Amino acid sequence: MRDIPSPGTRRATLERGDADLSSGFAPRDFDQVIKDGKVKVSGVPIPNALWSLALNTAKPPFDNVKLRQALAWAMPYEQIQSSAFFGRAVPMYGGPAEVSKPIWPQPFPYVTDLDKARALMKEAGFETGFETTLSLDTGTATVGEPTIVLIQESLAKIGIKADINKIPGANWRTTLNKKELPLALNRFSGWLDYPEYYFYWNFHGNNSIFNISSYQNKEMDKLIDKARFTTDAAEYETTVKAFIALCMRDVPVIPLNQPIHDVAMQKNIGGYEFWFHREPDFRQFTKG
Predict the structure, then answer these.
(1) Taking Cα atoms as reference points, which of 242, 282, 244, 237 lies closest to residue 263?
(2) Confidence of residue 8 (pLDDT cuts 50, 70, 90)
(3) Is the CATH code 3.20.20.300 the one for domain 7-46+261-287?
(4) DSSP code string of 34-52
């Protein structure tokens, strides 16, 4: 195993045949590697993971649910998917209006509709717009920066002037924990692949460090707790669908996509399997 910090150098090393397997490239690079066809790529959606825009529900103006819904209709989803992630993520927009399956993540019903966004802005009392900030972790700038610029441009179309606040990766978690950021682009993945696990850490009223939206809703708390402890399968399914539907209505976060864990390898490498910890298990590899 070799530790090569530069993604560009890792890619070049792999394509020269000096490495059997590598990961950690930007989505643009994986897209190009797939098109070039010199090596093969295994891509697996990361379980219980989301890229999303978190809205601070505890402070004005985003304590207004109509305003949060307005932003959900204003996101440039398809542009983000194609221009920031190059298709190397699972879209989390354009889903059905009703929740039919107890699975997470699943697409929210929102799509880009600026007319709906403007109408909801008016209902929320923000017809003339306002100013705010969009924050991102500079450690995720490869996909985060083009994503947040696209969001900034789209929000401007509905009257929201958003300045971009770039926070160094070393300070990102500390800053999030203060729960003061109006809007924050964030990626979260749960180690355990259960909907209630994700919701407990992100949306429960215990207000954990991962609940960066500071979302508080007693109805949500009851549903999450019921799902965590029930032993009845039918009750579990009904409860999970109910708290996902509530999240879609209240919009503490706006899901953008489910990240894909891509690994590139030589065509003669076999035995690769995805693990939730996203590290390769070399014991399974074959080379022929």
Answers:
(1) 282
(2) confident
(3) no
(4) HHH-SSEEEEEEPTTEEEE
Backbone angles phi, psi at 249, to 5 degrees: -75, -40
Determine the average pLDDT of the residues in 81-105. Answer: 97
Tokens 């850490």 belong to 201
Tell me which fold the domain 49-260 belongs to.
Dipeptide-binding Protein; domain 3 (3.10.105)
Q: Is 179 left (phi over 0), alpha (psi -120 to 50) or beta?
A: left
Residue 163 falls in which region: left (phi positive, over 0), alpha (psi -120 to 50) or beta: beta
**pLDDT on residue 242:** 98
Closest by Cα among 136, 164, 157 to 53: 136
d(CA 205, CA 211) in angstroms, rounded, equals 9
Burial of 17: CB neighbours in 10 Å, binned 0-12, 13-18, 19+: exposed
**Cβ-contact 39, 33 below 8 angstroms:** yes
Counting every residue, how long is the chain?
A: 288
